[in-house]
Amino acid sequence: MQIQDRKVDDILVVQPLEKRIDASVATEFKGKMVDWINTGSTRIVLDLSNVDFIDSSGLGAIVSSLKTIGNNGDLVISGIKETVMSLFRLTRMNRVFQIFSSEQEAIQALSKR
pTM of the predicted model, to two decimals? Predict the structure, then answer.
């Protein structure tokens, strides 16, 4: 799975370059997220602007990343497309995650914490 990552001050911006986060890549995605968290990245923006589809395995990997951070940081989501947002609404994950329309808004919100 191709994922672009970069730091903006002490905020890690993670952007999957794939169109889908599904069972075929969920384990790899989760592994990369856990590695970043375990090496000290505790404020993360997950930019889903390239992602058109997430299945239950992909959603599970994202939720697992949030649990790994726990109370030690924040994982917020930006750039979510309507097709993916409908899954977040259906599973009520839109109430669990803070979701921002743009990466810049997400970075600004995390910078204030």
Answer: 0.96
